[in-house]
Amino acid sequence: MSTSTQLPSSPAKGRTLRREIGLIGLMWASVGSIIGSGWLYGAKNAVMMAGPAAVISWLIGAVAIVLLALVHAELGGMFPVAGGTARYPHYTFGGLAGMSFGWFSWLQAATVAPIEVEAMIGYAGHWSWATGFQNADGTLTTSGFVVAVILMAVFVAVNFLGVKVLAHTNSAATWWKIFIPLVTIFVVALTHFHGSNFTSHGFMPFGGKGILAAISTSGIIFALLGFEQAIQLAGESKNPKKDIPRAVLGSVAIGAAIYVLLQVAYIGALPGASFAKGWASLAYQGISGPWAGLASLVGLGWLAWFLYLDAVVSPAGTGLIYTTSTSRISFGLSRNGYAPKLFEKTERQGVPWFGLIISFVVGVICFLPFPSWQALVSFITSASVLMYAGAPLAYGALRKQLPARERPYRLPFGQVISPLSFVIATLIIYWSGWSTLWRLGLAILLGYLLMGAYAWYATATGKPYAPKMDWKSAQWLPVYLVGVGIVSWQGQFGGTGNIPLWVDIAIVAVFAVAVYYWAIATSLKAAEIERNIEDVEVVDEGGH
């Protein structure tokens, strides 16, 4: 069955993006997304869940993200299109899978900016004028909600100035965001480092389960995510086939190194009294702003001042770039026929304006059901990894069906790394816990209703771009989603506990491998993939 989405042979006026971003702009978009609110809270949350073994959690998380980034690097070089992560499954599995992973991508991007706003407001509570913005449990007060809406509006306003202004703004913010954590690591480790902290209460007080749970639920994966921003902006890259792989891999290397060092420095600098009752009861004055509070506690008041300032700059930079990527993903979804053509329209600066407005509206709504930072983190980590899980599947299908297609970056040992990265993504989803996954399931159903309704409308009215659902090539997808949900429901991470620890992990891993090869076996044939790629490349490359 053909999956061709019949699109015009040249882009309509007002529906093109401008290729104005170089390598540094792409890399800094990804680095700026990786180093956001995660560095402000990640080390504290991880050590409370895993003890000093949180260092292992960060290393496992870094390896997982590196594997996923390697797969994305090859795909990003092959297909330099806007909103790339939302589009690869469309090429290889057709309409149903493309719509599903497109929704996962958009859901992830649209909800990151609210997380960053929450982090900004939380840290701002250090100043007396901001103490009324949050309740004691971290939820927003009425005045806090108003401030949050204003901050979201600022993100959107900067985006309307155009991608070149955005790139310069983000670049300046990213230099700052790299500098401050490095200074913090150096100063804290040099002046207040106690190696005994790693063993005085046991290196692994919560065992292997604590290490694994910390990866998803403490914010580790959330902190390390963001490398895909270079891919989402590929449609605006000057030299995408070379620059995108470099930006993706370079940003992961920088981010992972900083986060691991931050965790080591944080554990070593804590006064013994702060964890005298155990790591789960870690407490000290100012812990609501973990790094700044610690700096004040150990007599580094000048560093604390910079950290409180950075608590505004770092999350703001990340929120800004994710607002950008949300509009580019909706642009890509519209290109593939899953969303109204209004999402493709650009104003005179080449900005997809309707996607920006929708990202603002959805971001504001997110403050209502998920008002606290930690609740949002758990939810969005699962949505993020669901999005990333589509890339290894697309990679495997393309290696099988189009082995001779040009690949500016060819991943060594890709046939091993690709299924392994899919297994890791599935495990991270599972480790997020049942309480998060059932809510994510509801969000997935909402996406099917919205995008499915539009696809039905486009088909019923005879729109030339109406997507075909291609049920046969996506037959594995509902089994995958339901299967992970069932194991989570019965497993050790927020479930009933009927499946023992390690047995549950083995089940998830074997299940993921089976789904991976099932998906590759049922992917679209080479001619159908070529038609999908051709349809998209014609409109994305024309006019640039």
Q: What does this protein look like?
A:
The model is unreliable at 1-13 and 538-544 (pLDDT under 50). The protein is globular and about 65 Å long. It contains 20 helices and no strands. 67% of the residues lie in helices and 0% in strands. With 544 residues, the protein is an all-alpha fold.
Number of helical stretches of at least 4 residues: 20
Low-confidence stretches: 1-13, 538-544
Give the percentage of residues in beta strands: under 5%
Report the principal-axis shape: globular
Q: Give the SSE order as H and E letters.
A: HHHHHHHHHHHHHHHHHHHH
- Radius of gyration, in angstroms, nearest whole number: 22 Å
Total strand segments: 0
Structural class: mainly alpha
Q: Residue share in helices?
A: 55-70%
Write the SSE topology.
Layout: H1 23-34, H2 37-50, H3 54-78, H4 88-93, H5 95-124, H6 142-159, H7 163-191, H8 207-217, H9 220-224, H10 229-232, H11 240-269, H12 290-297, H13 301-335, H14 353-366, H15 373-401, H16 414-431, H17 434-460, H18 476-490, H19 503-521, H20 526-541
Helix pairs in contact: 1-7, 1-11, 1-13, 2-8, 2-11, 3-8, 3-11, 3-15, 3-16, 5-6, 5-13, 5-14, 5-15, 5-17, 6-13, 6-14, 7-11, 7-13, 12-13, 13-14, 15-16, 15-17, 15-19, 16-18, 16-19, 17-18, 18-19
